[in-house]
Design a protein that fits this description.
Elements lengths: L13 H4 L6 H17 L6 H8 L3 H13 L3 E7 L6 E8 L27 H11 L11 H11 L5 H10 L3 E2 L2 E2 L3 H19 L10
Antiparallel strand pairs: 1-2, 3-4
Helix pairs in contact: 2-4, 3-4
Length: 210
Protein backbone atom coordinates (compact mmCIF):
# COMPACT_ATOMS: atom_id res chain seq x y z
CA UNK A 1 0.00 0.00 0.00
CA UNK A 2 1.15 3.52 -0.76
CA UNK A 3 2.96 5.29 2.08
CA UNK A 4 0.65 7.84 3.66
CA UNK A 5 1.84 11.29 4.64
CA UNK A 6 0.47 12.21 8.08
CA UNK A 7 1.58 15.84 8.13
CA UNK A 8 -1.70 17.31 6.86
CA UNK A 9 -4.30 18.96 9.07
CA UNK A 10 -7.53 17.12 9.86
CA UNK A 11 -10.74 19.17 9.70
CA UNK A 12 -14.00 18.24 11.44
CA UNK A 13 -16.67 20.93 10.80
CA UNK A 14 -19.57 21.66 13.11
CA UNK A 15 -21.91 19.76 10.78
CA UNK A 16 -20.04 16.59 11.65
CA UNK A 17 -19.18 17.37 15.28
CA UNK A 18 -22.77 17.97 16.34
CA UNK A 19 -24.43 15.22 14.32
CA UNK A 20 -25.92 12.91 16.96
CA UNK A 21 -26.42 10.17 14.37
CA UNK A 22 -22.65 9.68 14.16
CA UNK A 23 -20.60 7.90 16.79
CA UNK A 24 -17.54 9.72 18.13
CA UNK A 25 -15.14 7.45 16.25
CA UNK A 26 -16.91 8.05 12.93
CA UNK A 27 -16.34 11.78 13.45
CA UNK A 28 -12.67 11.12 14.16
CA UNK A 29 -12.42 8.98 11.04
CA UNK A 30 -13.95 11.82 9.00
CA UNK A 31 -11.13 14.09 10.19
CA UNK A 32 -8.55 11.51 9.13
CA UNK A 33 -10.16 11.25 5.70
CA UNK A 34 -9.98 15.04 5.22
CA UNK A 35 -6.28 14.94 6.11
CA UNK A 36 -5.59 12.28 3.48
CA UNK A 37 -7.78 14.02 0.89
CA UNK A 38 -5.76 17.18 1.37
CA UNK A 39 -2.86 15.66 -0.58
CA UNK A 40 -4.61 14.38 -3.69
CA UNK A 41 -8.25 15.35 -3.45
CA UNK A 42 -9.34 11.85 -2.46
CA UNK A 43 -8.53 9.25 0.21
CA UNK A 44 -7.08 5.97 -1.03
CA UNK A 45 -6.52 4.35 2.41
CA UNK A 46 -8.37 1.06 2.90
CA UNK A 47 -10.06 -0.35 6.00
CA UNK A 48 -6.97 -2.36 6.88
CA UNK A 49 -4.94 0.84 7.16
CA UNK A 50 -7.54 2.53 9.39
CA UNK A 51 -7.86 -0.66 11.46
CA UNK A 52 -4.14 -0.61 12.23
CA UNK A 53 -4.14 3.15 12.79
CA UNK A 54 -6.89 3.08 15.43
CA UNK A 55 -6.22 -0.44 16.74
CA UNK A 56 -9.77 -1.65 16.12
CA UNK A 57 -11.30 -4.33 13.92
CA UNK A 58 -11.94 -3.78 10.22
CA UNK A 59 -15.61 -4.45 11.00
CA UNK A 60 -15.64 -1.36 13.23
CA UNK A 61 -14.02 0.71 10.47
CA UNK A 62 -16.63 -0.51 7.99
CA UNK A 63 -19.39 0.54 10.38
CA UNK A 64 -17.92 4.06 10.79
CA UNK A 65 -17.45 4.47 7.04
CA UNK A 66 -21.06 3.36 6.45
CA UNK A 67 -22.33 6.00 8.91
CA UNK A 68 -20.51 8.73 6.98
CA UNK A 69 -21.71 7.36 3.64
CA UNK A 70 -25.31 7.07 4.78
CA UNK A 71 -25.30 10.72 5.88
CA UNK A 72 -23.70 11.82 2.62
CA UNK A 73 -20.63 13.30 4.34
CA UNK A 74 -18.33 11.26 2.13
CA UNK A 75 -18.68 9.49 -1.21
CA UNK A 76 -17.14 6.18 -2.21
CA UNK A 77 -16.13 4.56 -5.50
CA UNK A 78 -14.92 0.97 -5.77
CA UNK A 79 -12.55 0.05 -8.61
CA UNK A 80 -12.47 -3.65 -9.49
CA UNK A 81 -9.86 -5.59 -11.40
CA UNK A 82 -10.81 -6.10 -15.04
CA UNK A 83 -13.33 -8.91 -15.52
CA UNK A 84 -13.23 -9.65 -11.81
CA UNK A 85 -15.03 -8.84 -8.59
CA UNK A 86 -11.73 -8.41 -6.77
CA UNK A 87 -11.38 -4.89 -5.38
CA UNK A 88 -8.43 -3.03 -6.86
CA UNK A 89 -8.92 0.34 -5.15
CA UNK A 90 -11.45 2.22 -3.08
CA UNK A 91 -11.60 6.01 -3.25
CA UNK A 92 -13.27 8.17 -0.59
CA UNK A 93 -13.99 11.84 -1.14
CA UNK A 94 -15.44 14.58 1.02
CA UNK A 95 -19.09 15.17 0.18
CA UNK A 96 -21.13 18.37 0.09
CA UNK A 97 -22.99 18.25 3.38
CA UNK A 98 -25.76 17.93 4.19
CA UNK A 99 -26.20 15.95 0.96
CA UNK A 100 -29.50 15.23 -0.74
CA UNK A 101 -29.08 11.62 -1.81
CA UNK A 102 -31.83 11.99 -4.43
CA UNK A 103 -29.70 14.60 -6.17
CA UNK A 104 -26.20 13.23 -5.61
CA UNK A 105 -26.12 9.63 -4.37
CA UNK A 106 -22.76 8.50 -3.09
CA UNK A 107 -22.51 5.64 -5.57
CA UNK A 108 -22.49 7.81 -8.68
CA UNK A 109 -20.01 7.15 -11.49
CA UNK A 110 -16.73 9.05 -11.25
CA UNK A 111 -13.33 8.81 -12.86
CA UNK A 112 -10.38 8.11 -10.58
CA UNK A 113 -6.74 7.64 -11.57
CA UNK A 114 -5.02 4.30 -10.99
CA UNK A 115 -1.49 5.69 -11.40
CA UNK A 116 -1.60 7.61 -8.08
CA UNK A 117 -1.91 10.99 -9.82
CA UNK A 118 -4.76 13.47 -9.61
CA UNK A 119 -5.13 16.37 -12.01
CA UNK A 120 -8.26 18.00 -10.66
CA UNK A 121 -8.81 18.78 -6.96
CA UNK A 122 -11.40 21.50 -7.47
CA UNK A 123 -14.23 19.63 -5.74
CA UNK A 124 -12.21 19.03 -2.59
CA UNK A 125 -10.69 22.51 -2.57
CA UNK A 126 -14.12 24.11 -2.80
CA UNK A 127 -15.32 21.98 0.09
CA UNK A 128 -12.23 22.83 2.14
CA UNK A 129 -12.72 26.56 1.56
CA UNK A 130 -16.32 26.21 2.67
CA UNK A 131 -15.16 24.53 5.88
CA UNK A 132 -12.55 27.21 6.57
CA UNK A 133 -15.16 29.94 5.98
CA UNK A 134 -17.37 28.39 8.64
CA UNK A 135 -16.06 30.80 11.27
CA UNK A 136 -17.70 33.65 9.37
CA UNK A 137 -21.18 32.36 10.19
CA UNK A 138 -20.46 31.62 13.86
CA UNK A 139 -20.34 35.29 14.94
CA UNK A 140 -23.15 36.24 17.27
CA UNK A 141 -23.75 39.94 17.67
CA UNK A 142 -23.84 41.12 21.29
CA UNK A 143 -26.74 42.72 23.09
CA UNK A 144 -26.53 46.31 24.28
CA UNK A 145 -26.29 45.08 27.88
CA UNK A 146 -23.35 42.82 27.01
CA UNK A 147 -21.50 45.75 25.46
CA UNK A 148 -22.36 47.96 28.42
CA UNK A 149 -21.12 45.42 30.96
CA UNK A 150 -17.90 44.83 29.03
CA UNK A 151 -17.17 48.57 28.87
CA UNK A 152 -17.86 48.91 32.61
CA UNK A 153 -15.59 45.95 33.30
CA UNK A 154 -12.77 47.60 31.36
CA UNK A 155 -13.58 51.06 32.74
CA UNK A 156 -12.81 52.47 29.31
CA UNK A 157 -15.28 55.38 29.33
CA UNK A 158 -16.64 54.41 25.90
CA UNK A 159 -20.12 55.59 24.93
CA UNK A 160 -21.37 52.04 24.55
CA UNK A 161 -24.70 53.17 23.06
CA UNK A 162 -22.82 55.06 20.32
CA UNK A 163 -20.59 52.03 19.70
CA UNK A 164 -23.60 49.69 19.49
CA UNK A 165 -25.51 52.01 17.16
CA UNK A 166 -22.49 52.40 14.88
CA UNK A 167 -21.94 48.68 14.30
CA UNK A 168 -25.65 47.95 14.09
CA UNK A 169 -25.94 50.54 11.31
CA UNK A 170 -22.98 49.20 9.30
CA UNK A 171 -24.09 45.56 9.48
CA UNK A 172 -21.51 44.51 12.08
CA UNK A 173 -18.52 44.95 9.84
CA UNK A 174 -14.97 46.04 10.62
CA UNK A 175 -13.93 47.92 7.54
CA UNK A 176 -15.22 45.78 4.67
CA UNK A 177 -14.99 42.49 6.55
CA UNK A 178 -17.63 40.81 8.76
CA UNK A 179 -16.93 41.23 12.46
CA UNK A 180 -15.52 38.10 14.14
CA UNK A 181 -14.88 39.32 17.71
CA UNK A 182 -16.98 42.19 19.07
CA UNK A 183 -14.86 42.49 22.23
CA UNK A 184 -11.78 43.07 20.09
CA UNK A 185 -13.74 45.79 18.26
CA UNK A 186 -14.51 47.44 21.61
CA UNK A 187 -10.83 47.38 22.54
CA UNK A 188 -9.89 48.90 19.18
CA UNK A 189 -12.48 51.65 19.68
CA UNK A 190 -11.07 52.18 23.16
CA UNK A 191 -7.52 52.49 21.80
CA UNK A 192 -8.63 54.96 19.11
CA UNK A 193 -10.36 57.10 21.74
CA UNK A 194 -7.19 57.14 23.85
CA UNK A 195 -5.15 58.32 20.87
CA UNK A 196 -7.62 61.10 20.11
CA UNK A 197 -7.50 62.22 23.74
CA UNK A 198 -3.71 62.46 23.61
CA UNK A 199 -3.79 64.40 20.35
CA UNK A 200 -6.16 66.94 21.87
CA UNK A 201 -3.60 67.63 24.59
CA UNK A 202 -0.88 68.63 22.13
CA UNK A 203 -0.37 72.28 21.13
CA UNK A 204 0.35 73.33 17.48
CA UNK A 205 4.04 73.35 18.51
CA UNK A 206 4.03 69.69 19.50
CA UNK A 207 4.18 70.36 23.26
CA UNK A 208 1.73 68.70 25.64
CA UNK A 209 -0.49 71.17 27.42
CA UNK A 210 -0.95 70.48 31.13
Amino acid sequence: MEEINKSYYAIIPATIRYDNDLCANAKLLYGEITALCNEKGYCWANNDYFSQLYQVSKKSISRWVKQLLDKGYISSEIIYEKDSKKVLNRYLKIGDYPMDKNVLPYGQKKEYPTDKKVTDNNTYNNTLNSILDESKINFKKPTLDEVKNYCIERNNGIDYQKWFNYYTANGWKVGKNPMKDWKAAVRTWESNNDNKAKESEVSPYGVYLN
